[in-house]
């Protein structure tokens, strides 16, 4: 009788906890332009709930109770926090952080700042951090959605990026095969999650940061404050036809030697298949030991026309949700497995799980595509 009562009590507690949770949705806009702001980190204060705004600036987050505080963070905007209210849909307006142009100085302070970031990161390369992560890949051909791939996973991360991963729950569906075949595009996410890189063509590496690129400070954010960030422009010294090259900006917290963000384009050598450009925004945060660690990224890969390819594109969101202690006993894969689609096992698709679990809001078009996949029973899933 006591055991039965215990189970009933546990059930009531679980039900009460579920009822106390509240799903908050809204849109994040620039306060001056009213344009949507993608890639804003949304965190429930003193809790594990985490999300980011999608490409349309929209967001959803499931908070623990109706009195929670949500914090909105983006390197280019002032941080904002609000108390959860009863509104079902809220508009958040973020104001731009104060920007100041750099003073004229002798030498190149950009090189000194980047060297400090690289040297600090190198001190932490033996550490491994384990996270639960979410990965979303949406494919298009000539503007038409062709493929959706979403996955929860556990990952092992170091300053060089994701090294190993372990799939938890995944779903995959495809309407048409694309001309440009890239079976394992998760490599792009894993590789670009690193603070530093072993390859010479990345803008931050442990070889020589000034060997291939020119660096110059463009501006400062929150100049003179403890949270000051230098925005450093990165351009190739010469156009190389046989290697990929980066063009963009690197954001550095000047008082802490921490990498904050990398934003720009990776341009690949043109081949018989056509041109290939990767547009990326990678955000980092500071962990409790003071080192930069990966937070989230948004990648868009475009493949231009040339032989059989007719404008293929891939859009990827990848972000860490919460830190975990270690991998579980299930199978673990290296970061550079040849074909990540083989990881997805065919079994019964659980639509209710995916309806309530995805931590980033789908765009209206993505929602329509998902409904189409479900009607056609095209989803495969390992849940």
Describe the structure.
This protein has 383 residues and is of the alpha+beta class. It folds into two domains: 2-94, Carboxypeptidase-like, regulatory domain (Immunoglobulin-like, Sandwich); 113-381, no CATH class. The protein has helices spanning 2-20, 109-122, 186-192, 351-357, 364-375; strands at residues 22-30, 41-44, 50-52, 58-63, 69-73, 80-83, 89-94, 99-100, 129-141, 144-158, 161-174, 213-221, 229-236, 245-253, 258-267, 276-286, 292-303, 312-324, 333-334, 380-381.
Based on Cα principal axes, name the global outline: globular
**What's the domain count?**
2
Distance between the termini: 35 Å
Overall structural class, as computed from helix and strand content, comes to alpha+beta
Strand content: 35-45%
Helicity, as a percent range? 10-25%
The count of helical stretches stands at 5
Uncertain ranges: 1-19
Oligomer: single chain
Q: State the order of secondary-structure elements, H for helix, E for strand.
A: HEEEEEEEEHEEEHEEEEEEEEHHE
Summarize the main sheet: 13 strands, antiparallel
Give the overall pLDDT as a whole number.
83
How many beta-strand segments?
Answer: 20
| Backbone CA Rg | 22 Å
